[in-house]
Write a structure and sequence with these properties.
Length: about 260
């Protein structure tokens, strides 16, 4: 249910994103159109039953995340109090134990964060991360940087002819390959899935010419690559990109709109 609703939502947003104004009626008509294309009957009783179960599961997950976070914060409070006493008493043995406790707490919080802010398929950051962590409360950039909008090409053809699994594996390969190569260049970056087949690389304190050259070289390497599935299907991965600089307090939405138009 989640995957099909997400696909309909992505298709809808992707189509409407360049509109300056989106009325509720326009969004519903577009959503309904893509739902029908994917054989999703919004009036079907079974659909509504599945939707109710899906919403209940989402609420349950949110409550679990909140509970785990509160428990971790409570532990941090107690550990901080114990650490203060241990420091005053110069108790190295206790401080060592507290260090291990803090390490375990970090793992717990990272686990919750990954559930909320990571894409299910590629493990890149997701839109929640962009809007809740990377941008300020007005959806403007927190600092200067460079943005590269990547689009995986032929996604509809691959999905329709080879299915979700092949398309997911293609995305996983591309994102892993791209991030590994960028790491080798020792660039400061974050990568997030924005929508459907589009990913954003945020470069921090880097040179746009250098970033452009690296992405162009990556594209050439990808163009020369052929992937083969276990069933013998051959896929030629391909992506395009648009790159631009942005300044602190610039609108993220306007920057993305401009990049989409250029693409």
């Amino acid at each position: 249910m989640k995957k099909i609703l997400k696909k309909v939502t992505d298709e809808t947003i992707n189509e409407l994103l360049q509109n300056e104004i989106i009325l509720p009626s326009t969004y519903f008509q577009c959503f309904d159109k893509h739902a029908k294309i994917l054989d999703l009957n919004l009036e079907d009783e079974e659909f509504h039953n599945n939707l109710d179960s899906f919403i209940a599961k989402e609420y349950e997950d949110i409550n679990n995340y909140a509970k785990r976070t509160l428990e971790s914060l409570h532990k941090v409070k107690n550990v901080t109090k114990d650490a203060k006493i241990a420091i005053e008493n110069k108790d190295e043995s206790t401080l060592q134990q507290i260090y291990h406790q803090m390490d375990e707490l970090k793992k717990e919080l990272d686990s919750v964060s990954n559930k909320i802010f990571r894409d299910d398929v590629t493990k890149a950051f997701n839109k929640k991360w962009i809007y809740n962590i990377f941008l300020d409360t007005n959806n403007n950039f927190k600092k200067d940087g460079i943005l590269a909008l990547l689009t995986i090409e032929n996604d509809d053809y691959i999905y329709e002819n080879y299915g979700q699994l092949i398309f997911d594996n293609l995305q996983i390969f591309l994102i892993k390959y791209i991030t590994r190569k960028i790491k080798e260049e020792k660039l400061n970056y974050s990568i997030a899935r924005f929508i459907k087949n589009k990913f954003i690389i945020f470069f921090d304190e880097e040179n746009i010419k250098e970033c452009t050259n690296i992405l162009n070289n990556l594209k050439k390497l990808i163009d020369e690559t052929t992937l083969k599935s276990k069933s013998g299907i051959l896929i030629k991965p391909n992506f395009s990109f648009e790159i631009a600089t942005y300044n602190k307090k610039d609108s993220f939405t306007e920057t993305i709109d401009s990049s989409f138009k250029n693409l």
